[in-house]
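Quick one before lunch.
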Amino acid sequence: MSKPEKSVQADSERRRVLGLLLAGGATATACAAQNGKRAESGDEDLRNSLLWAAAWKQTAAEYFALCHQAYNLARLRVDLALDKRAAGDKPLAVITDLDNTAMHARSYWGYLINQGLDFFDDSIWDEWLPKNQITAAPGAKDFFDYCSARNVDVFYVTNRDQGERTYEYAMKQLEFLEFPFADDEHLYVFRDSSDKSPARAEVRSKFQIAVMLGDNLNDYQRDYYVTDIAERLRLMERDRDHFGREFILLPNPTDGHWVRAIFGDSEPQPTRENRHLLKQAATYIAWDGQ
Ligand SMILES: [Mg+2]
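Model of the magnesium ion complex:
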C-alpha cells in the first residue's frame, strides 16, 4: 500500500473511531486502547472475546456474500433437481434451518456485547426472540420465493425453546419476514432436542429433497452431535463431497455445535475455566515463536 493511501485510510479510520466514541459515550481509556496493541486495564469490554466474531457478523460484506453464495448454489441445486424430474417422482422439497441460516439475530449480539457479556446468554435470547428484531439472511427470501414459484416446498426446521409459545414465535417470524410456506405443515420446532432427524425423515417420506441448508452440521446429519473436536473434523472429511450438493452450509462464528465440541455444552457458562477452554481452542495449533 502506498503512503498517501495509508494516510487517507488512517485519517478516515480515526474519524470513524472518533465518531463511534462520541456517539457511544466511550471513555478516554478506549482512545488509548485504539492506539495500542493491548487494551488498558479497566477496558474489559474492549477485550470481550466475542468482539471479532460479532463484528464480522455485523459488518463484513464477506459474511453477507457467503449467504448469497449459499443461496445461489441452493438455487442451482433446485434447478438441477427440476431438470432431472421424471413422471411419478415424488414432489420436490428443500429443508432449511432458521437461525443463522434463513434469519439473522444481529441486534441480539449487539445487545449482548453492550451488556458486557462475552458468552451466549439464553435468558436474553428468550427475551429478545419474540420481539421480531430478526432479519432475513441475504438471499434467503428470494430463494424461498423461487422455490415456491416452481412448486418446490420449503420446510423450516428449528430447535428452540422459549416455553409454551416457542412454536408461535417461530411462526410469527416466518410471517414477519414474509417467507412462503409459513404454515403448520412446513414448520417443525423441536423444543426438547436438537435432533432434527425426525423432521428430515418425515419430509423425505413424502418428498424428494433437492437440498438442505444449515449453519450447523447437525442440520445435515445427527452424527455430528459429538463433543470430540477431532471426531467432528473426521466426520466432516467423510462427507466432504456432500457439501454444496446435498447440504449447503452457511457461516456462523458465534454459536453452534462447534461450540459444544470445545466446551461440552452448546451454551457454555461464562466461567474462568471456559475462557481457558476458548483460549485452548484458539491456540489449537500455534507457532512456538522459534
Ligand atoms: Mg442454526
